[in-house]
Every structure is written in C-alpha cells, then in structure tokens.
Amino acid sequence: MQEIINWSDEFLAGAMVIIQLFFVSLLMVIVWGLLGATAKLSNSRIARGIANGFTVLCRGIPEFLLLLIVYFGSAVTLTNIARSWDPEIRFMDIPPFWAGAFAISLVIGAYATETFRGAFLGIDKGLVEAAKALGLTRFQVFWRLRLPMMWRLALPGFGNHLLSLLKDTALVSVIGVQGILFTAQQATTVNHKPFTMYLTVAFIFLALSTVIVVTMKCIEKYAYRHLEAAR
C-alpha cells in the first residue's frame, strides 16, 4: 500500500493524460465514423471504395502495430519533407500524444463506421420521405432527422467502442506518452513491485470504464425516454 501512496501523484497525473487522450481520440472517432458511414452509403463508387479500404485496413491491422506505423511513419515522412527544404534538419516527428490519439482513433473509427452505417440503415425510410415531402432540404433532413435518429440507434454499440477506446489508450505508453501504464513501468524499475503497480493500473482503468458504462446507461435512458412515457 505504501508503494501506491508514494506514486499516487504520478498515477493521478498519468490518469489525467489518459482522460485527455480519450476525449481527443473520441472527437476523431466521431469524425471518422460519420465520414466513413456517409461515404459507404453514398452513390459514389470512389467514396465507397475509400471507406471500404479504410475499414478493412484499420480493422485488419492490430492496434499496437498501427500505432507504431503511424508514429514512426509520420516521423519519417516529416523528416523527409523538412530535409527537402533544409538539408541540415536531422529529425522531425509528431508529438507522441497526438500520434497516439490519431492512431487509436483510426481503429475505433473504423468500427464506429460500421456501427453508424447500420444505424443509418435502421432509420425508417418513410420518415425520410415524409420529411422531404414537407419541403426540407437534404441537409435539413440529415441534421434534424437522420442524425438524431442514427445516434439513438447507435448508442449501444457506440458504448462498446468507448470502452475499447479507453483500453487502447494504454498502448500509447510504448511511444513515450506518460499515462498510467508508463507510470507503472517507471515505478516498477524503482520499487520492484510489478504486481502491485500493474494492479493499480487495472483498478484505475476499471474505475474509468465504470464511469463510461454508467454514463452511457444514463444517455440511453434519456434517448429512449419517449418509449418509457408511451408505456
């Protein structure tokens, strides 16, 4: 117990990094998911092809491997671009935090694409046709009808994506992001208590996961409140 207390400040700081990483990645996930789902449902073959390639690639490559490819690949690309302007530049890279957020958002965004696509397909076509008959533009139909109804249908699956996103944030320690797993690794080298340190990390992730589960249940209850009132 004393070992945990000694490292409590570091674990708290690491937890804050993980929470920040989670929310930044979440915004990206929503963007990738909406863009991917819209592209898959579009009439453009090119858009559908790009979206299909995105989901196959990002779901087929392990998260850990994709994280390394994005981090080191971006460093190589930026370095080569910078050297074309200034040969004296030796190395450039994206900050590990942003590289990690981008990489894990691609993976979860690919899964969210399929969840959103299924939710869009679950909307009653008669409601869309009725909205168009009332004179609503395509943008108004999407913003006022399809998007709100899609979110309601996507909530159960999206909650699972949030849990996966949270757990994937543990991977970014490998590229130097100082999250709670990174803190546990550092503490282990000092106190040689790996079981205690990693068990602490597990409890922190479990606590954060519980918050997500409870939050999603509250959101789902609010989203389906009209059904409860109709009973």
Automatic annotation (TrEMBL):
The chain crosses the membrane at residues 12-35, 64-82, 94-112, 195-216. It holds the Pfam family BPD_transp_1. It is found in: Cell inner membrane; Cell membrane. The keyword Transport applies. PANTHER family: ARGININE ABC TRANSPORTER PERMEASE PROTEIN ARTQ, CATIONIC AMINO ACID TRANSPORTER, MEMBRANE COMPONENT. It comes from Ruegeria spongiae. Keywords: Cell inner membrane, Cell membrane, Membrane, Transmembrane, Transmembrane helix, Transport. This is ABC transporter permease subunit. Belongs to the binding-protein-dependent transport system permease family. HisMQ subfamily. Residues 15-216 form the ABC transmembrane type-1 domain. The keyword Chloroplast does not apply. It comes from the Bacteria. It is a multi-pass membrane protein. NCBIfam families: HEQRo_perm_3TM (TIGR01726).
